[in-house]
Design brief:
This protein is mostly beta strands. 0% of the residues lie in helices and 49% in strands. It contains no helices and seven strands. Strands 2, 4, 5 and 6 form a four-stranded antiparallel beta sheet that branches. Strands 1-7-3 form a three-stranded antiparallel beta sheet, with no helix packed on it. The radius of gyration is 16 Å and the shape is elongated.
């Protein structure tokens, strides 16, 4: 489990403390930095390997009174809670 923050492109990268034998099952939850406004944020998995995960956080924005239609990268500083479940790789090359 980890909490990582997004960069300017809305991406957050988590390198696991210990590799897995295969890409793990991941869960990602973005924390809305402005919960009082009318926008929402969502995390989307872009890459999952045995050593790291990359998620991108998107936020909605209003489109001329038509509602929250388009999404754009959320930008820097959005916290993402990540959980990975899988079989850890053996230590020191041991099986």
């Amino acid at each position: 489990m980890a909490i990582v923050s997004t960069g300017t492109d809305g991406r957050a990268t988590w390198t696991y403390a210990r590799p897995f034998t295969a890409p793990p099952v991941l869960s990602a939850l973005a924390v809305d930095p402005s919960p009082g406004d009318d926008r929402a944020v969502m995390a989307v998995l872009e890459e999952a390997t045995a050593t790291r995960a990359v998620v991108r956080v998107w936020r909605t924005q209003q489109l001329l009174g038509l509602g929250l239609l388009p999404v754009i990268p959320a930008g820097a500083g959005v916290h993402v809670h990540l959980t990975a479940v899988g079989e850890p790789a053996p230590h020191d090359g041991q099986a």
